[in-house]
Design a protein that fits this description.
This protein has about 70 residues and is an all-beta fold. The protein has strands spanning about 5-15, 20-25, 35-40, 55-60, 65-70.
């Protein structure tokens, strides 16, 4: 688990299924550079192909991760 903070990342894998959209992101800067984080969005309307390679911002607050894609 990542410590609370804001991290720059890039989407390296994405897939959708009956439970929502799964994203795998790689942190691109800082002490956690290269770490891979997997998240699931059960209410997102994302095309898993379109989001591949997009830059993103991960915000960790109290152990909860939110993802903001930069489209």
């Amino acid at each position: 688990m990542l410590p609370d903070g804001t991290y720059h990342a890039i989407v390296i894998d994405s897939d959708d299924d009956d439970d929502g959209v799964r994203l795998e992101l790689t942190i691109t800067a800082g002490t956690h550079k290269g770490d891979v984080v997997a998240v699931r969005a059960d209410d997102a309307k994302l095309d898993p192909i379109v989001v591949l390679g997009l830059p993103a911002r991960l915000v960790v607050d109290g152990g909860q991760i939110s993802v903001e894609l930069e489209q």
